[in-house]
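quick q for whoever's on today - can somebody do inverse folding on this one?? i tried earlier but teh output was garbage lol. tokens:
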């Protein structure tokens, strides 16, 4: 039996392609289910804000290391 969830290593440009793919499918889903997703907008906005602040804090800590 094949293992679908085993670790792999990607180069930085392959990660970029993966992210572009995920953003594209997210946009497609958002366009297709636009009316349904409007009611979920505050939740998705809050998730984005929290994760963005978290990632920015990690980035800030790493660039200010001596």
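ok took a stab at it. sequence:
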């Amino acid at each position: 039996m094949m293992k679908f969830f085993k670790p792999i290593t990607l180069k930085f440009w392959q990660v970029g392609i993966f992210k572009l793919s995920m953003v594209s499918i997210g946009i497609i889903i958002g366009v297709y289910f636009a009316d349904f997703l409007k009611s979920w907008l505050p939740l998705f906005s809050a998730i984005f804000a929290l994760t963005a602040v978290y990632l920015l804090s990690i980035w800030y800590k790493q660039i200010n290391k001596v």
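fwiw The chain has a mean pLDDT of 89. also The chain has three helices and no strands. so keep that in mind when u check it
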